[in-house]
Amino acid sequence: MTQVQTKKTTSSTVIDARGPRFSAVLTTLVLATALISGQTWILIAQGIVFAIGAFRGPQFTPYAFIFRTFIKPRIKGEVKTEDVRPPQFAQSVGLIFAVVGVAGSFAGVPAIFTIATGFALAAAFLNAAFNFCLGCEMYLLLTRLRKA
């Protein structure tokens, strides 16, 4: 679980902590569909979402738009925020898996497509079901190692 902040800091952008989990639910559904169907174009579409999240930030993805527009207005209670950097790093990790999976598919090695998509699916499912963002935890670990 990433560290949750309750107010905006000057050093970094913060986002609604519920948004990435909602996005993980949609990502899980999309990646499961890609894995079951074996359709490369579905993984390419998810890779585009990952690329937006990795380069611009997860708050700019289509999934974040859906969350902001349709889900967030219906949720009551205090809005907990979190630093955008760990989820953005997680999007970068997802992008790497998507690129590897697409490359495997285009290279005619379906096992690479299956394994890369499966790993991305497992990480998305962990976040969606258990609120455990594997990419976020990797970011925090790497940050701690860099400071040590």
Q: Could you characterize the architecture of this molecule?
A:
The chain is mainly alpha-helical and 148 residues long. It is built from 6 helices and 3 strands. The protein has helices at residues 18-37, 40-55, 62-71, 85-106, 110-130, 134-147, and strands spanning 4-5, 14-16, 81-83. The protein has a 3-stranded antiparallel sheet. The longest helix has 22 residues, at 85-106. Mean pLDDT is 94; it is low at 3-9.
Mean pLDDT: 94
DSSP helix fraction: 55-70%
What Rg, in angstroms, do the CA atoms define?
Answer: 15 Å
How big a fraction of the residues is strand? 5-15%
State the end-to-end CA separation.
21 Å
Largest beta sheet, briefly? 3 strands, antiparallel
How are the strands of the biggest sheet laid out side by side?
1-3-2
Q: How many separate domains?
A: 1
Number of helices: 6
Structural class: mainly alpha
Shape: globular
- Low-confidence parts: 3-9
- Written as H for each helix and E for each strand, in order along the chain, the element string is EEHHHEHHH
Number of strands: 3
Please describe the structure with a list of short key phrases separated by commas or semicolons.
148 residues, mainly alpha, three-stranded antiparallel β-sheet, 6 helices, 70% helix, globular, disordered N terminus
